[in-house]
Design brief:
Blueprint: E1 6-10, H1 16-26, H2 34-42, E2 48-54, E3 57-70, E4 78-89, H3 98-112, E5 117-120, E6 132-133, H4 139-145, E7 149-160, H5 169-177, E8 181-184, H6 190-200, H7 205-213, E9 219-224, E10 227-234, E11 243-249, H8 258-272, E12 277-280, H9 286-293, E13 296-307
Parallel strand pairs: 4-5, 11-12
Antiparallel strand pairs: 1-2, 2-3, 3-4, 5-13, 6-13, 7-12, 7-13, 8-9, 9-10, 10-11
The structure holds coenzyme A.
Length: 308
C-alpha cells in the first residue's frame, strides 16, 4: 500500500546519528563506521542525500551522485552516469512506497543533471559497493519494479593480512635487474602517473587522485626510466575499512612480477596500519589475486542499470 505520509527532505550531517542507526538495522550486509557512512552521504559536492520521513520519524535514507566516466583516453570523451550510492528503508516501513519515493527522486535529480543512465552502487571514487549484495532479497524485485535490469555480477575479494609479511625486497632486486624501479609515489610522480592512467585507465584518475592526496600517498609506482609502467593504490575511499585498489600494469610490462610487488607493498601498508584484512573491491583478474596474495571471494553483488 502506498505510504501517503512519506515526506522527503535533504539529509544533513546533523542527521548522522539517526542515519547511522537506521543504516545499521536496515542494511546488515554493509556494516560501516559512521565516518564512512558520512563519506558516502556527503563526500561528493555533486551528490544528493535524502531523508524519507513518516510521521516525523526517519523511515529511509538514500543518496546518489553523477559520475563522469571517460570513454576515451585522456578524457577526450566521457559519459555522465548516475549512481545511487546507498538506499535503505527501515524494516517496519517497507512495502509502503518509501524506497520508491527515494529512488524516483534520486533518479529524477540525476537525470536533470545530465546523467544518461542509472546504476546502483558502482561509481568512483566514492562508493561503498560495486552493486547490490546478493543477500538483499527484496532489492531485485524492487529495482525491477523501477525498470532497472540486471547486467551482471561483481565481487569483492578478501585478503588475510596475517598470512604473510608482504616483504618484496627479493622481488624488487629481480625487477631492478630488469631496469624496473618501485617506490611509493610522491608529488613529483604525478605527471608520470597521469600519463600511465591516460593511456590505459582514464576512469581510475579520480581514485588515484584520492590516494595521492593521502599523507603519505597510498599509491606505489613501478617505473622504467622516467615512465610509469604500473601502479597500485589503497585507501582511495573507505580508508577505515582497509580497501585496496585500483591497480594496473601497462600491457608491455606484464609478466615481470610488477603487479604482485605493487600489490604486496599496498598490503604491507594496510597491515602496518593495523588492518587484519584487506578488501579488494570490485575485483577483476581473480586468478592474479589468488596467486599473488591468497585472496578469496568475500562478497558477491548483482549489478543493475537503466537508461535515464
Ligand atoms: C529494497 C528496499 C529499499 C525497498 O524499499 P521499500 O520501501 O520496501 O520499497 P517499496 O515499498 O517502494 O516497493 C516498491 C515495489 O518494489 C517491489 N518490492 C519491494 N520489496 C519487495 C519484496 N520484498 N518482495 C517483492 N517485491 C518487492 C514491489 O513491486 C513493490 O511494489 P508493491 O509493494 O506495490 O508490490 C528495502 O527492502 C530495503 O531497504 N532493503 C534492504 C537494503 C537494500 O536492499 N538496499 C538496496 C536497495 S537498491
Amino acid at each position: 500500500m502506498p505510504e501517503r505520509d512519506v515526506a522527503l527532505r535533504p539529509l544533513r550531517p546533523a542527521d548522522l546519528g539517526a542515519a547511522y542507526a537506521l543504516w545499521q538495522r536496515s542494511a546488515p550486509f554493509d556494516p560501516v563506521p559512521p565516518p564512512v557512512l558520512a563519506e558516502k552521504l556527503w563526500g561528493d559536492p555533486a551528490g544528493l542525500a535524502l531523508a524519507a520521513e513518516v510521521a516525523g520519524a526517519l523511515a529511509g535514507i538514500g543518496c546518489g551522485a553523477p559520475w563522469e566516466v571517460p570513454t576515451e583516453p585522456a578524457g577526450r570523451r566521457s559519459q555522465r552516469r548516475g549512481s545511487v550510492r546507498l538506499l535503505a528503508v527501515a524494516p517496519e516501513h517497507r512495502r509502503r512506497g518509501v524506497g520508491s519515493a527515494l529512488l524516483r527522486t534520486l533518479a529524477d535529480d540525476l537525470g536533470r543533471r545530465g546523467a544518461t543512465s542509472l546504476r546502483i552502487g558502482e561509481a568512483a571514487p566514492n562508493y561503498l559497493t560495486p552493486g547490490v549484495d546478493v543477500r538483499y532479497e527484496a532489492a531485485p524485485a524492487f529495482l525491477a519494479a523501477h525498470g532497472l535490469r540486471e547486467t551482471g555480477e561483481a565481487v569483492n575479494l578478501g585478503v588475510d593480512l596475517g598470512r604473510d609479511d608482504w616483504d618484496t625486497s627479493d622481488d624488487e632486486q629481480r625487477l631492478a635487474a630488469a631496469r624496473v624501479s618501485v617506490r611509493r609515489a610522491s608529488e613529483t610522480d604525478r605527471p608520470a602517473l597521469a600519463a600511465l592512467l591516460d593511456a590505459h585507465w582514464p576512469a581510475w584518475q579520480p581514485e588515484a587522485d584520492c590516494a595521492m592526496g593521502n599523507r603519505p600517498p597510498t599509491l606505489h609506482l613501478a617505473l622504467r626510466g622516467e615512465s610509469a609502467i604500473g601502479f597500485a593504490a589503497h585507501s582511495a575511499t573507505n580508508a577505515p575499512l582497509g580497501w585496496f585498489g585500483p591497480m594496473g600494469t601497462a600491457p608491455e610490462a606484464r609478466g615481470l612480477g610488477v603487479g604482485a610487488v605493487l600489490l604486496k607493498r599496498c598490503l604491507a601498508d594496510l597491515k602496518a596500519e593495523g588492518h587484519a584484512r584487506a578488501t579488494i573491491a570490485w575485483a577483476a583478474a581473480l586468478p592474479f589475486y589468488e596467486r599473488a596474495c591468497g585472496a578469496t571471494v568475500a562478497r558477491r553483488f548483482r549489478r543493475f542499470e537503466r537508461a535515464l
